[in-house]
Structures are given as C-alpha cells and as structure tokens.
C-alpha cells in the first residue's frame, strides 16, 4: 500500500553517486567502483536485490567492459550471500529492458536477483494481486548488510 498510495518519487532511485550517507535509508547493501547492490523496496520475495551501475543509462552498449564485469561480479556475490543467509532453492536473475519487458525503472539498467523457494508463489498474487513477504524489509536489510560487510573492502 505504501507503493500504491505513496507520492511518486522524483528522480532516479538508482542515481546514488555521492549519496553514501543515505545508504541505510535507501537500503544500499554494498558499493563497488562502478555499481552497487540495493534491496528492492517492493520485493517479489524476501531478499529481492538489484544490482545497478552508477552511470544512468538503460543501454547495455553504453557500458564499458570494466563496468559490465563489476556488475556481473556483484550479481554473483549477491547470489552467494543470499544463498548463505536465506538458503533459497533457486534464483531468478536478469534484466527487464524497456517498459514492455516489465522494467519499473526503464531509464536506468539494473539486474534483479530474486531468491526463490518451492511454493513461494501462492494464490495471493493470483486472486488478490498481493504478495506476502514474511520478513520486514528493515530486518532483512540488517541481516544482509551484516553479511555483505566483509566484502566492502575487497576488490571486486
């Protein structure tokens, strides 16, 4: 309901360069040189993360090899940490390029890393257009922030 009833956010949710002091409020989990890992505020499942570059572009061809490699490494690290913390049975990992493909923020490329469990999709989304997320986002953030902390000073 926060999403439905809330005021539309101004600006791009992924343009975070120079806003490190807002990391906890924005639920940023880890920052690299070219990209970062952030929680999805409106998750499909618990631990739904996103990896985005600092550079504002939706075109894969705009990014350097160094940026692409770091994004991939962050996606792999997000999967690793989620596996250790949440023990999912599988993952959906990918990009939604363009509004027609389901991109909620079509102007800033970002990867989704969605942990999955058998039975995590039930009748609620089908009949009520509601998702049930059993853990509060702030609690999930605290757990994941702690799990990502050892990687903060390591090169990606």
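-> sequence recovered:
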């Amino acid at each position: 309901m926060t999403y439905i009833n809330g005021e539309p956010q101004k600006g791009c949710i992924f343009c975070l360069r120079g806003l490190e002091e807002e990391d906890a409020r924005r639920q940023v989990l880890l920052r690299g040189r070219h990209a970062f890992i952030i929680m999805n505020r409106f998750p499909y499942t618990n631990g739904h993360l996103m990896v985005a570059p600092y550079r504002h572009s939706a075109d894969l061809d705009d990014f350097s090899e160094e940026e692409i490699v770091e994004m991939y490494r962050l996606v792999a690290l997000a999967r690793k940490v989620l596996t250790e913390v949440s023990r999912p049975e599988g993952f959906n990992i990918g990009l939604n390029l363009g509004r027609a493909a389901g991109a909620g923020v079509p102007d800033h490329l970002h990867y989704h890393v969605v942990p999955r469990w058998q039975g995590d999709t039930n009748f609620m989304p089908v009949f009520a257009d509601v998702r049930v997320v059993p853990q509060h986002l702030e609690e999930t953030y605290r757990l994941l922030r702690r799990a990502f902390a050892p990687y903060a000073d390591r090169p990606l």
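Confidence is low (pLDDT under 50) at residues 123-132.
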